[in-house]
Amino acid sequence: MPVRKNPFYITLIVSVFLYSFKAGEEKKNLSQEVDPPFLTISTPWADSVFNTLSQDERIAQLFMVAAYSNRDEKHENELKDLIENYGIGGLIYFQGGP
């Protein structure tokens, strides 16, 4: 099946290619900017706590688990298990009351 050389498609392909090239150049320029202020602030307490954690504990701190206050005791026990045995980083409450 022969490929038709439609000028619209050729223009579209060239435009997408040039745009992606320009976007790549902009990303390079962004990486040369100054670091955000929060990266230059000293955090001795947080660093001291972080340094006491094992690799598994550091990974567990990255997890924020969905919690529902309108569920049964089984759900509460599952959350308690995640906190006590794995040291997850936090809970985010969705449905239910305070």
Please characterize this protein's 3D structure.
This protein is mostly helical and 98 residues long. It has four helices and two strands; from the N terminus they run H-H-H-E-H-E. The chain has a two-stranded parallel sheet with strand order 1-2. Strand 1, helix 4 and strand 2 form a beta-alpha-beta unit. The longest helix has 25 residues, at 7-31. The protein is flat, with a radius of gyration of 25 Å. The model has no long low-confidence stretch (mean pLDDT 83).
Principal-axes geometry comes out as: flat
Percent helix among the residues? 55-70%
Share of residues in strands: 5-15%
Task: Please summarize the sheet with the most strands.
Answer: 2 strands, parallel
* Extended strand count: 2
- Strands of the widest sheet, in order across it, are 1-2
- The helix count comes to 4
Helix-strand layout with pairing:
Blueprint: H1 7-31, H2 44-52, H3 55-60, E1 64-67, H4 73-86, E2 90-93
Parallel strand pairs: 1-2
Quick summary:
The protein has 98 residues and is mainly alpha-helical. The protein has helices at 7-31, 44-52, 55-60, 73-86, and strands at residues 64-67, 90-93.
